[in-house]
């Protein structure tokens, strides 16, 4: 019989797929690491598993304990799935701007979701930050993973994503491109690849225009899951050789092309990372092997990026100029 003991065994070992159409006219081989093949549907399953197992070993998370994290996104899904399998409770805190679909995914795994008002100051007792801190203090057996500062976030990539890419490319990878959110993916994977290649592999970060990693002020943008308005400790600034800033419009148009031209229904941060990878590939040769990591699936963005009306409202449809409405609407 061929089977896995549990869904947890399916985390990692995701496939590499060559991009054939969006790369037309470019010399290098461009390969996508498709992270939606993880059981929770995103790259974040890797860090969820590593953070939880490290907390079990250190005794911070005890049998029957409760995981409390301010997240509504992919990290929440990864934590909820691993917690459910291991018998922990989960409480996620998220702002009220988060879509009900995302909240319902977390509840479907059995997690509790506390929704906080967006329109209050961070210092307000009902703010997203204060509510999660209070829940950690007041819940017996509570543990907060804190993906922004937890060293097991980058370590999970150093131990899984990096070695997988080195083996899958038979050591021929020359460039690694990833979006930067907490910075865990690029810092851990990039560090491994640099060490394995004696510094030969170049590491390129992709960042939304406006985010601090590419020198922005932290101004708003629409790409989800990437970019920051502060510098998290999970990000090791010494790893990336270059950071490429990508606009919302370019990222979302590429996201739509990936579905239509490559059969890859992926999220907006994936389109952003591919734009950066193709820009880097323009100056490279036929022996170069560029790997771009695609964090999640496009299913979570059907009413936005894959919705023509939504795209048109922002002026993101092909050949339309930006209306400049992004800042107003946000
Ligand atoms: N894309 C998406 C959709 C994400 O959820 C995340 C995680 N925040 C990232 C990219 C960036 O990954 P990292 O946090 O490892 O930098």
UniProtKB/TrEMBL annotation:
It comes from the Bacteria. One of its GO terms (molecular function) is cystathionine beta-synthase activity. Its EC number is 4.2.1.22. Keywords: CBS domain, Lyase, Pyridoxal phosphate. Pathway: Amino-acid biosynthesis; L-cysteine biosynthesis; L-cysteine from L-homocysteine and L-serine: step 1/2. It catalyses: L-homocysteine + L-serine = L,L-cystathionine + H2O. Its cofactor is pyridoxal 5'-phosphate. Belongs to the cysteine synthase/cystathionine beta-synthase family. This is Cystathionine beta-synthase. It comes from Streptomyces polyrhachis. The chain holds residues 1 to 330 of 462 of the full protein.
């Amino acid at each position: 019989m061929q089977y896995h003991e549990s869904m947890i065994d399916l985390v990692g070992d995701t496939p590499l797929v060559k991009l054939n159409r969006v790369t037309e006219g470019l010399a290098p081989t461009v390969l996508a690491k498709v992270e939606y093949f993880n059981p929770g549907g995103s790259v974040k399953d890797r860090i969820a598993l590593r953070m939880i197992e490290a907390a079990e070993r250190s005794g911070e998370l005890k049998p029957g304990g409760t995981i409390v994290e301010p997240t509504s996104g992919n990290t929440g899904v990864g934590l909820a799935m691993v917690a459910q399998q291991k018998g922990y409770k989960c409480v996620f805190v998220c702002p009220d701007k988060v879509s009900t679909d995302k909240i319902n995914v977390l509840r479907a795994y059995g997690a509790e979701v506390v929704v906080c008002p967006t329109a209050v100051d961070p210092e307000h007792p009902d703010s997203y930050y204060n509510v999660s801190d209070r829940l950690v203090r007041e819940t017996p057996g509570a543990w907060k993973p804190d993906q922004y500062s937890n060293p097991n976030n980058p370590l999970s990539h150093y131990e899984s994503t990096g070695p997988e890419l080195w083996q899958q490319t038979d050591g021929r990878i020359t460039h690694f491109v990833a979006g930067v959110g907490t910075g865990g993916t690029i810092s851990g994977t990039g560090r491994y690849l640099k060490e394995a290649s004696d510094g030969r592999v170049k590491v390129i970060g992709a960042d939304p225009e406006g985010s601090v990693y590419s020198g922005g002020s932290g101004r708003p943008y629409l790409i989800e899951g990437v970019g920051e308005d502060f510098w998290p400790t999970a990000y090791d600034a010494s790893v990336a050789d270059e950071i490429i800033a990508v606009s919302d419009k370019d990222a979302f148009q590429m996201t739509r092309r990936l579905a239509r031209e490559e059969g890859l229904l992926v999220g907006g941060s994936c389109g952003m990372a591919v734009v950066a990878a193709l820009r880097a590939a323009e100056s490279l040769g036929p022996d170069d092997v560029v790997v771009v990591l695609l964090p999640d699936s496009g299913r979570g963005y059907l009413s936005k990026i894959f919705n023509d009306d939504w795209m048109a409202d922002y002026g993101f449809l092909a050949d339309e100029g930006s209306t400049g409405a992004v800042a107003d609407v946000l």
